[in-house]
Every structure is written in C-alpha cells, then in structure tokens.
Amino acid sequence: MEQAARNCTGRFFYAPGFLIFASPFPIRMILTDTHTHLYLPGFDHDRDEAVARALAAGVEKMIMPNIDSSSFPSMMNLARLYPGVCIPMIGLHPTSVKKDYGRELDFIVSATGTTNIAAVGETGIDLYWDTST
User: Fold this and answer.
1) Whose CA is closest to 39, among 77, 70, 69?
2) What are the average pLDDT values for consecutive 10-residue runs of the chain, which has 133 residues?
3) Across the strands, what pairs with 120?
4) Cβ count within 10 A of residue 122
C-alpha cells in the first residue's frame, strides 16, 4: 500500500498488478433488486413489510418485471405507492405466451406509450421451466 501511495499521479494509483481510480467526487453504491414480483398476490399479506425490510437493508431500487396484462394493474399500483423505489417494466413472460399472444403484445405496445415504464422485461426463452430447447 505504501508503494501504491508513492506511485500516485493525479487521480490514479498504481500498484503491482493493480490500477485504482480515485474519483474526485464521492462515490456511493446504490443497491438495486433487479428482479422482484412484489406485486403478486403471494405478497398481499406482507408487501409493505417486505418493501420496508428491503429499504432498511439498504436496497434503494426494486425493478419489477411485468408478467402479462393481468399482472400489470397491481404492478403499476405498487409503483405508484413507492415512486422512485418500485420501478415497473413491461413485458410478456415466456410461460404466458398463449394463443392470445397477439393481444398481449398489443397491450405491451399500448402500455409503453401511456405509462411510466422504465424498461422491457420479462422476455426471452424460459429455460427454467421448459428445458426442451
């Protein structure tokens, strides 16, 4: 460490095998839960307590991927209750792709233009439930 301090030039510290950047600005880590379904009925009995526990543990953002049109209202309600904390995404979970998928996709397109959606998610190939591919 002493050698690293002697090799200090500006905002970079050099040590054998390491390059450490020292920012002139305070750096603060923001803990984010990138995938939570707190809006689902399984959390009806303790949803507020779960959010409170996460906030108390230092989690500042909770990203909520949508499942399909049926889960959208409860997800958006939670986003309204915790603005800036519970962040909604729009998508269609692979296990929700049924014969009416066209209607679901139309819903996604319409919802992105009328609501405060941060990203697209649940999407993709579900290799957790369906391992046939």
Assistant:
1) 77
2) 44 60 70 94 97 96 94 95 95 85 90 85 74 61
3) 90
4) 21
